[in-house]
Amino acid sequence: MSNFIKPENFSLILPYIELFQQGLIVTVLLAACTVLIGFVLAIVLAVIRMSNFQPFLMLARAFPGLFGFFEYDKQGNKLDSGFAYQLGRFNPFGFLATAYVEVMRSTPVLVQMWVIYYGVFKVFFTIPRFKMLGFISADRFIPCAVTLGLNSAAYLCEIIRSGLQSVDGGQTEAARSLGLKQMQNLRYIVLPQALKNILPAIANEFVVIIKESAVAYTIGVMDIMGAVNAVKSANSIIMEPLIVAAGIYFCLCFPASKVIAYVERRMRRGDVR
Fold first, then answer.
1. Residue at 135 is within a domain
2. Where are the beta strands (DSSP E) in the chain?
């Protein structure tokens, strides 16, 4: 296998142009599905992490005779420290959401993909083998999209949470004074403003996902890197198809980053008083 770039080797790639075109479509679809899955899950995770669900404290207030020790000591003084105090304010759903985010952010996406593909979809779920758009293997594409979506959700969760927390708390109080319920306040007051603040970061995550999707070929997804692997196997060349792949990724990511920068400038212009 030649590790040197030879101009004449680029002609060997021409018969595989259709593979690169299909790989481009797969990469874009994979990124779009990943953002969709990740964004929906990230909103749920962010809301859970910001929630104030404290079941032990709720029991203490509902049944003070049985569970009052989570809020008061034996002398009737309100607790401000200790194990019972910490347990009373423990949010199990928030703990699970935080654990999920930390685990997904602290482990390689390639390992996650192999665990989900070989350990989940091969054991617990069976996806029928069929072709989407005539050339995309669903039994490989779907696990890959799910994995990248779950991984992206961990990062988007922090972005969305910071956006929600950036909205002035006084607006929430004003919404309550108008009779809006918590979900109505979140839907009509908080989320629209938070989305405006975090839209550039979410769009940037889309660019990151395009590049991270390159690991999809390791489980047989025929994306751009899958096309590179096909050329390498057939012609024993690697540098030339890698250069072509790098050019395709650049043509996808560079314009997208410029569009993101333009949108961000327009959004900042609207905030100028």
1. yes
2. 131-132, 136-137
Assign 223 to helix, strand or coil.
Answer: coil
Domain end call among 90, 118, 148: 90
Query: Which pairs count as long-range contacts for 52-55, CB under 8 Å and 24+ apart, including other chains?
Result: 52/91, 53/91, 53/92, 53/93, 53/94, 54/88, 54/89, 54/90, 54/91, 55/92
Instruction: Could you list the beta-strand ranges (E) of 83-210.
Output: 131-132, 136-137
Q: Are 20 and 244 in contact (CB under 8 A)?
A: yes
Do both 201 and 211 map to the same domain? yes
Residues β-bridged to residue 131: 137
Residues 174 and 266 in one domain: yes
Q: Structural domain of residue 70, as residue ranges? A: 54-90
Q: Please check whether residue 2 lies inside any domain of the structure.
A: no
Q: Record the pTM.
A: 0.82
Percent of the chain with pLDDT over 90: 17
Give pLDDT tens digits for 164-187. 787 777 777 777 777 777 777 777
**How many domains, in total, are found in the chain?**
2
